[in-house]
Amino acid sequence: MLKTVKDLTKCKFIVDSSKLLSRLKIYIKSDLFEIYFIHLVRDGIAVTHSCSIPRIKPSYGENVFTPRVNPLRTAFRWTISNIAAEIIGKSNIANLHYFRVFYEELSTDTENVMKRIYRWLGLNPSEAILTYPITENIHNISGSRWRFKKNVKIEFNKDYRKNIRLINKISFLLIGGFLNFRYGYPLL
Predict the structure, then answer these.
(1) Which residues fall within 8 angstroms of residue 14, CB to CB, at 6 or more apart?
(2) What is the residue-wise DSSP string for 27-46?
(3) Residues 93, 187: Cα–Cα separation, whole Å
(4) Which of 121, 138, 171, 187 could form a disulfide with 71 if both were Cys (CB 3.0 to 4.6 A apart)?
(5) pLDDT tens digit string along 74-124?
(6) Phi/psi of residue 146, each to 5°?
């Protein structure tokens, strides 16, 4: 299937926003692609807080919500996935290029971060689309709730550190605090 996608599209870049490291490993093993892996890192405390808030699932209707996720489970998944992303990204794989981006910077300085990404990809930022055009024809398999909204704006929510429940914060810090701190986020 990967070879068919590559042959049919004849595109310079095919974007997979699945966030699945297992899929990345398949791409690496296929040896069909030059892979540009963007590792998007978000403060683990923000992720833990976000996962503790039920949100409407628009594809299922107005009365269906995402479940609250146990903060220990969130911390474990966040830590393991970020460590695995770093290991894969820093390995000596010939067809893999690695770039780390922090969510907070992407959400507060989107245009400059996108320009850096375009340069890293070897593209001219002045010719690039630096905003996401929302149209009626978004082709997406599963994924984020944003695909159901028009006029999407990326905003940094800085209140999560004071709004997170103390038990959720402690749960995260016990498991992922060391990595969060290494990424430059404050412990408290």
Answers:
(1) 5, 6, 33
(2) HHHHT-S-EEEEEEE--HHH
(3) 33
(4) 171
(5) 999 999 999 999 999 999 888 899 999 999 999 899 889 999 999 999 888
(6) -60, -25
Phi-psi region of 184 (alpha: psi -120 to 50; beta: other; left: phi over 0): left
What's phi and psi for 70, nearest 5 deg? Answer: -55, 130
CA distance 142 to 116: 28
Amino acid (1-letter code) at residue 147: R
**Tokens for 30?**
């296929």
Domain range summary for the chain, segments of one domain joined by +: 2-6+23-182
Per-position b or e across 32-62, b if 16+ CB within 10 A of its CB: ebebbbbbebbbbbbbbbbbbeeeeeeeeee
**Going by C-beta distance under 8 Å and a sequence separation of 6 or more, which residues neighbour residue 28?**
35, 88, 93, 95, 96
Q: What is the pTM of this model?
A: 0.80
- What's the pLDDT tens digit per position in 113-159? 999 999 999 888 877 665 555 444 444 444 555 555 566 666 777 88
For residue 50, give the H/E element and its range.
helix 44-51
